[in-house]
Design a protein that fits this description.
This protein is α+β, with helices and mostly antiparallel strands. The protein has five helices and seven strands. α1 crosses α2 and α2 packs across α3.
Length: about 200
């Protein structure tokens, strides 16, 4: 990652007033984070984008899902990406940053409102019993990803330059125009392992 001077925002790369270590980014990017925090309140607490809840069955397995509007899907993508980018900037002094070399590509797409056009994939899971943890690197189908917890959700964003293939058990889930949320009904279950049920539904 290039190291911008202190008068350049490390996120949007615009020339600005000196960016303090406390704020990490310029005032315009801070305003954007604030708008996305407002979206989070509407999405997670007020449940404004929720359309319906369904139970899917395949053989002996049952999968609970929530269906949220396409606006909710777009908003959650940008909110999640913003959280991850901010966490990456906070991790720069650590041995391993959150996004590594993917930061510049993702930050550019985020700042230019290109996440949807670039077809970023993510998986959202709603927990029965939230157990928040710091954002962390993970892998999905051999692709680089980051898991971030927010409210009672975990969101896994594919950060790899490649995308999930159409053969992936998650493809139908992530490619739906609406947001399909996997609902954990038992803290002991791994709902990701059940995700293929949606593809058969």
């Amino acid at each position: 990652m290039k190291t911008p001077n202190s008068n350049t925002c490390p996120l949007c790369l615009k020339q600005t007033n000196p960016v303090s270590a406390e704020h990490l980014v310029c005032s315009e990017c801070e305003k954007r984070f604030a708008r996305e925090a407002d979206f989070a309140e509407a999405f997670f607490e007020e449940r404004k984008y929720l359309k319906s809840h369904r139970e899917l069955k395949y053989q002996e397995e049952t999968l609970s899902i929530e269906i949220h509007s396409n606006l909710g899907k777009a908003g959650l993508l940008y909110y999640t990406t913003g959280l991850i980018l901010k966490s990456h900037l906070e991790s720069l002094n650590e041995e391993e940053s959150l996004l590594g070399g993917a930061f510049e590509r993702i930050a550019k797409d985020y700042c230019e409102h290109m996440l949807e056009d670039q077809n970023y994939h993510f998986i959202a899971i709603k927990h029965e019993e939230p157990y928040p943890a710091p954002p962390a690197r993970t892998r999905i189908q051999n692709l680089n990803a980051v898991n971030v917890d927010a409210f009672d959700f975990s969101i896994i964003l594919i950060t790899d330059k490649n995308r999930l293939s159409q053969d992936s058990p998650f493809y139908k889930l992530v490619s739906n125009p609406e947001l399909i949320v996997l609902v954990e009904t038992d803290p002991q279950e791994n709902v990701l392992k059940k995700a293929a049920i949606y593809g058969r539904g």
